[in-house]
Amino acid sequence: MLSLPENLPQQCFDAELLGNSEASWAAYREAIALAQELLINHFAAQSQPYSGTSPEDLAATLDKFNYFPKVGKNLQQVLHTTAKIILNNSVVVSHPACVAHLHCPPVIPALAAEVLISGMNQSMDSWDQSAAATHLEQQMIREVCAWFGYGEVADGIFTSGGTQSNFMGLLLARDRFAQKHLNWSIQQQGLPPEASRFRILCSEVAHFTVRQAAAQLGLGEKAVVAVAVDTGYRISAVKLQETLEALKQEGCLPIAIVATAGTTDFGSIDPLQVISEIAEKEGIWLHVDAAYGGALAICDRYSHLLRGIDGADSIAVDFHKLFYQPISCGAFLLKNRLNFELIKLHTDYLNPESHAEFGMVDLVTKSVQTTRRFDGLKLFITLQAIGQKQLAEMIETTIKLAQATANLIKDDSDLELVNFPTINAVVFRYLPGEIELANSINQQIRLTLLGTGEAVIAQTQINHNVYLKFTLLNPHTTLTHVKEILQRIKEIGQVLSEK
Ligand SMILES: *Cc1c(COP(=O)(O)O)cnc(C)c1O
């Protein structure tokens, strides 16, 4: 018998922890209701996508906080104070003039799901921490695999986003190559001597996380070979084949090709069908980075743009971009689930092998994370509530807007259009009278708009020249909004040109 100390101090923490008592529920209700009110009031007061506050002023305001108080304050007061400073100086992603980055306004069903996710606080690493959540996520992954034409032997895992999914694709490609061609287990033995000759091919406009993953995987950025793109910013299949031949001639070992379905700057989609044929013929792992363009898979009108994606060994898809999910939510998909064996580990405390006998699935074996949020629920609830048809309509609205925007820019002699959009990214620049000033003027146009807070637009570089970019993810943005922003760009450009 355990003997309990006579006077065990009894403190209940009911107001602090969500649990099973009236006091706890009351505190929770009040806290969540207030957070909602603050957010709604904030949106109601927003006339522009950013306050325009400078980094210095913002730092000065935030530095006044005591970040580690000994004694807490009333939550209402804390939320009010924090909301005033943080919310008022945040970027309003739902504002029609917030058109920078692949950063979406979140759909309401997913926000309700977030309340459940945080309140339940399931952890997706082992079945005994998540039960129903594990099964639901698995089924959701099966469904997502089917969108991309993957069959019964496919599998996948929810991830924090494209960065993690691309890392996983290249991790498995690397380990599979060593196992198959060198009879070497990198998981057990570390990198083989041949690793310095491993090469990864991708387009010159592929996402930087391909280089990042190569570095993290011990191959170095030098392992990434950029293949030239055509005028539509898509990998040239001819150049890809030539590069492969040249690398083999030099004694290099191409372990993976990364194709992009929706490049971050241009939304361009590499010729997936041809690339997958090349990868198959050469026996090289094909990873498709569909972080951005993967959403086209659910659009009847545009899914043909992804033709050939089912030939990929692995796919990265993000839900916190064109699927309108709150950050973070992405998935890594694997054509043949057996390849997950390459990274499988067992730990006695978390996922003992005996769990399988009891029909318990521990998702930790497929993830590079251990403790992991139940983000699959957001996508599930979104699809249940909104349905494929309407979600696709939201996406299609933004694609049409991008096309109309490109037409406006093309017909304007003060502006230069770079790409006709495949998805919803439009790259262009203001053309000043003196073209030598174009770089500094375009850079200043963007900073001016951010500084006044009237529009948040993006910037990129092509051949050392500065360009402006709209990523038109928000279905609330209309052509009228776009015209207003373009007008302001021209006005600011003109003033700067006359200086
Ligand atoms: C956004 C993006 C990534 C990175 O994904 P995160 O979700 O930000 O980690 C990778 N590739 C492409 C093409 C992207 O657009």
Automatic annotation (TrEMBL):
Gene3D superfamilies to which the protein is assigned, alphabetical: Aspartate Aminotransferase, domain 1, PLP-dependent transferases, Type I PLP-dependent aspartate aminotransferase-like (Major domain)
SUPFAM superfamilies xrefs: PLP-dependent transferases
Stored InterPro entries: PyrdxlP-dep_de-COase, PyrdxlP-dep_Trfase, PyrdxlP-dep_Trfase_major, PyrdxlP-dep_Trfase_small, Pyridoxal-P_BS
Cofactor: pyridoxal 5'-phosphate
Signal peptide range in chain numbering: none
Superkingdom assignment: Bacteria
Molecular function terms from GO: transaminase activity
Keywords: Aminotransferase, Decarboxylase, Lyase, Pyridoxal phosphate, Transferase
Cross-referenced Pfam families: Pyridoxal_deC
PROSITE patterns (UniProt xref): DDC_GAD_HDC_YDC
Family to which the UniProt record says this protein belongs: Belongs to the group II decarboxylase family.
Name of the protein this chain belongs to: Aspartate aminotransferase family protein
Phylogenetic placement of the source organism: Bacteria, Bacillati, Cyanobacteriota, Cyanophyceae, Oscillatoriophycideae
